[in-house]
Design brief:
alpha/beta; four-stranded mixed beta sheet; 67% helix; two-stranded antiparallel sheet; 6 strands; D-Maltodextrin-Binding Protein, domain 2; 2 domains
């Protein structure tokens, strides 16, 4: 009978939330936002080029810099002979130039100074390009001044490109390609999603309890259902809403990104950019990245996705159940959301600490701090997901999950005792001393 009552409350909580306008809007708008974060950078990169190259006048008094000022589709450097920078500056309004660059004669140390004049601020790309070209020209001129034979060949010869390959060995001695960057990305995304959803949907449980308490609906419900059953029904009901919304977000986001990519022609734009780029030839890029690309693909294949996804679901569900039971107790103890600040701080602090421990774990996944952070139940959902991609012994994983389950059961019991008393208390803001008395009732 108890189970049937809980299932009724779960169904009620689910139906109430999925019918709300806020749920519908959030479900529809969030995938659009996620898709925009993925598509917009591609659009910016694809269509960031200027329609015409900006002309920049260069007065080179050094005699060595101008050959290094290479023009392209974005910037056209034009050398000015027979005029000074001051003359160009005074008649700038009558010139068809975006900017004027003046390069001084070399001093005794073979250095130059550069000055630019323009009506609009130079963007970082043009400014950086001018600076790099001048530096390269001066450096090459200084090297040539030493009179070392075959200097260019020597400089090319001493340039080193060290390739570091990392492998891991399993118990049978078989080697697998290892890419620590992949593990960091997987761990960060998984840990941050768990933190975000625990806080978001745990707060939803708390607000639901406060709403029903202030409207006195809870008095009608509690007459036929035990308070603990109400609390568990709310927790599981909101969890079902969270999982449903999360699944919709994933499907809609992938669908929108795919359709938007085809409709906006990002693939064609990217190919066009590659063909017109003169910074580095495509053949050189392909040659330089081929080996890294192969090792990256191999490392991605070797990732144990079944274990990672399975652990993500387990820690998300258990972490949510643990924290939402505490959020429900806080909601039952107060009359309005403004009074929750004092009581909610001890709940949110372990979540924040878990995020900091997650960052530490990326650098030291097997340290004592990382180990205990992945075992202590209030931080383990975030910290263990940061460790899991690096490889965690089965006994540590079992210990962490077991402690988390036991802690949830204990916390649900304590929260239930607070909930059954606080749910019918009105007009008084309880302190920690008062809540301690409720636990002993």
């Amino acid at each position: 009978m108890g189970k049937s009552k809980i299932s009724v409350i779960i169904a009620r909580e689910f139906a109430i939330r999925v019918k709300k306008k806020s749920f519908i809007l959030t479900t529809l708008l969030t995938p659009i936002l996620f898709a925009a974060l993925m598509v917009v950078p591609g659009l910016i990169a694809a269509y960031s080029e200027e329609d015409e190259a900006r002309k920049i006048a260069v007065v080179d008094n050094s005699g060595v810099v101008m050959p290094y000022m290479q023009s392209d589709s974005q910037v056209e450097f034009c050398q000015i002979v027979g005029a000074t920078v001051e003359e160009l500056k005074e008649g700038f309004n009558n010139l068809d130039y975006f900017a004027v660059v003046g390069i001084s004669a070399m001093d005794s140390s073979k250095n130059v100074s550069v000055v630019t004049y323009s009506k609009k601020q130079l963007n970082m790309d043009i400014k950086g390009r001018i600076s790099r070209n001048v530096e390269e020209a001066v450096e090459q001129h200084k090297l040539q001044g030493y009179g070392i034979p075959q200097l260019e060949e020597i400089m090319e010869d001493i340039e080193s490109d060290v390739k570091l390959s990392t492998y891991t060995l399993d118990e049978s001695g078989e080697e697998k390609v290892s890419k620590v960057e992949i593990f960091m990305v997987i761990g960060y995304i998984a840990s941050f999603l768990i933190y975000m959803f625990i806080f978001m949907f745990g707060s939803m449980v708390m607000r639901s309890v406060i709403e029903e308490k202030t409207t006195r609906i809870i008095e009608v419900i509690v007459s036929s259902v035990k308070p603990f059953q109400i609390m568990m029904g709310k927790i599981i009901g909101v969890a079902s809403v969270a999982l449903t919304q999360f699944l919709i977000w994933i499907v809609f986001t992938m669908l929108i990104v795919t359709v938007a990519g085809q409709a906006l022609g990002l693939n064609e734009a990217a190919q066009t950019m590659s063909s017109v780029s003169s910074e580095v030839p495509v053949a050189e890029i392909t040659s330089a990245m081929q080996d890294d690309g192969d090792s990256l693909l191999q490392a991605l294949k070797d990732v144990n996705y079944v274990q990672i996804i399975g652990c993500f679901i387990i820690y998300f569900v258990l972490g949510y159940l643990l924290y939402s039971s505490m959020f429900a107790a806080v909601g039952a103890a107060v009359d309005n959301e403004a009074d929750t600040q004092q009581l909610i701080l001890p709940i949110t602090m372990p979540l924040i600490v878990g995020l900091f421990l997650m960052l530490h774990t990326f650098q030291y996944p097997d340290s004592a701090l990382s180990f205990w952070g992945s075992v202590i139940p209030f931080t383990s959902p975030m910290v263990m997901m940061a460790r899991i991609a690096y490889g965690v012994p089965a006994w540590e994983l079992a210990l962490s999950i077991g402690v988390l389950v036991l802690t949830f059961v204990g916390m649900a019991y304590l929260s239930g005792r607070i909930y059954r008393v606080g749910i019918l208390m009105y007009g008084k803001k309880p302190g920690w001393k008062e809540i301690w008395k409720w636990l002993k009732y």
